[in-house]
Amino acid sequence: MKNYKSIAAFSKQCQRISASVLDDFLISYVASQKKFSRIIKKSRKYKHIFQELQPELPELFITQLLAHQIFKENGMIRSLLNHRAVKDSTPEEYEYLQLMAELPWRFSFSTIEVHPEKKNYLMKDAFSGEEFLLHSESITTLLTTENPVLWLNLIGFNGRCWQTFGPVVYFQGFTSDDIFFFATERNHDIENDADLIKSLQKNSLPYMMLISGAKLPHFL
Asked: Does a structural domain hold residue 139?
């Protein structure tokens, strides 16, 4: 039987390390790179959606996208581990980054299958079918007032479970079929779930902007 209290405590420790080394340095460093300025430029086409959101969310979404650039498959983390400023991190911080480099972060549309313990959830990826243990304080908070049927999270593995990073996007009326329809309307080359997953990892922003319909109810 899993020790969920131990997992929660370990995840909280990882959040603390992440806030120090990622929020305070790596995100700013990546944002300063010219080749990633296009992320910020692309986000401007969704200005009309951002205006409907809480004022702090646009910046948080951009931060989330930059984090994905660092830790995604073939992302920047491998080269960043050799960066002088990163090597000057504390041993705890550097070990954390090495761990994050072992398994790529990814965006995942998922559903809650089981809620075994507060802040810990057994999730199922809506398109790959993979089940994974997720620790998320944000999901716990949202469930006190909302009743989502589908989630969109940026997730990373901390060695014991997956954790969310950045804004949690949820949908009260959109199902995986709706997401698939949206994806194929944007890109007619998408023919199956594997194609959609590739599209999501390559350009996550349009999917994130579906947050504009987050509270739409589900009609049977």
From this structure: yes
Q: What range does the domain containing 179 cover?
A: 4-213
Residue 220: inside a domain: no
How many structural domains comprise the chain? 1
pLDDT confidence band for 67 (50 / 70 / 90): very high
Q: In terms of C-beta distances under 8 Å and separation of at least 24 residues, what long-range contacts does 12-19 make, across chains too?
A: 14/96, 14/158, 14/163, 15/163, 17/92, 17/93, 17/96, 18/96, 18/165
218 occurs within a structural domain: no
Q: What is the largest CA-CA distance in the chain?
A: 56
Domain membership of residue 143 (yes or no) is: yes
- Spell out the alpha helix ranges (H) of 19-127: 27-31, 37-43, 47-50, 57-71, 77-80, 84-87, 91-102
pTM above 0.85, yes or no: yes
